[in-house]
Amino acid sequence: MSPSCPLMPVFRRLLPCLFLLAAAPASADYSGHPKAQELLTQLAREERFSPEELAAVRVALTQAEKIPKLVEAEQKAAERTETWTTYAAKRVDAPRIENGADFLDENSTWFARAEAQYGVPPAIIAGVLGLETNFGRFTGSARVLDALATQGFDHPTRSAFFFSELREFFVFCRDFKRDPTEALGSYAGAMGWAQFMPSNYRRLAVDFDGDGNRDLWTGADAIGSIARYLVEYDPNRSWHRGEPLAVPAVLEKPLPATVPINTSRTTHTVAELAALGLRATVDLPPGTRVGVVELQLDQGREYWIGLNNFYSVMSYNPRVYYAMTVSLLAQEMARVDAERNIAR
């Protein structure tokens, strides 16, 4: 082919695509994995998959790609590697606060309905959406099939959890009539604006807009589903209407080494922590169940007292930084939204 051939420009445009294809992960053909038969057996026995549906699962497993970077992303999540100073500064920033205030205003009807039905304030729901997907702007670019197959079959420490979610994903695809090779989500297999794992999608997603579909790639259903999640996911950490998440605290003396810090549930009463040396800076009933929240700053530490709703948010993501950021982002979005309403 001569340089003047009219196909040459097309060929040059295709070269980057060819290189990308050559560098792409090869199909792992997980249908031959030792645990594949266990998956198929569970789907047949516990989920009543028909022979035709099991055959479709086998085909999907042959198309799944092993992507080790997804495991690395899960192991190096920011909540595990950054200080609170860095983590919060990246997420409670002016653009996200402004976008969140816009989102609160644009979806005020759905937020009001969610609060009336479940008791969760609009700004808290928006805080979760802001952290998870920047209010629906980025819901993930990894194929859920690849994420869950890679981590369910090959994760070094959490394969049992992801294997269970892989099974739930195939049930989700059957029941929601989704092609398992097309759904996109996070590196961990979370889906939609609300970033629900498949098991939670099946159990807790709601059709909030009444269109006949539980579609977490829509704002209304995501808003209602997050509110329901915080109330129903774990009855022991169910959202308490009208209560805050956390309050600042002063450490008056070193806590005993036996005091649990940054747990996922309440551990003491307000009075017990005060006696141990951690005092809330606002009045709380002495018998209120709370926990110790310690935030690692670039220099030093900061202390808060977490109430039930703090741990309700931690049921969504079991990281202290996450729950604190939801709380702070919610406060800032609510403040801006209120200021705008006053100015109107």
From TrEMBL:
Keywords: Signal. GO terms for molecular function: peptidoglycan lytic transglycosylase activity. GO terms for biological process: peptidoglycan catabolic process. It holds the Pfam family SLT_2. Residues 1-28 form the signal peptide. Residues 35-331 form the Transglycosylase SLT domain. SUPFAM superfamilies: Lysozyme-like. PANTHER family: MEMBRANE-BOUND LYTIC MUREIN TRANSGLYCOSYLASE B. This is Membrane-bound lytic murein transglycosylase B. It comes from Panacagrimonas perspica.
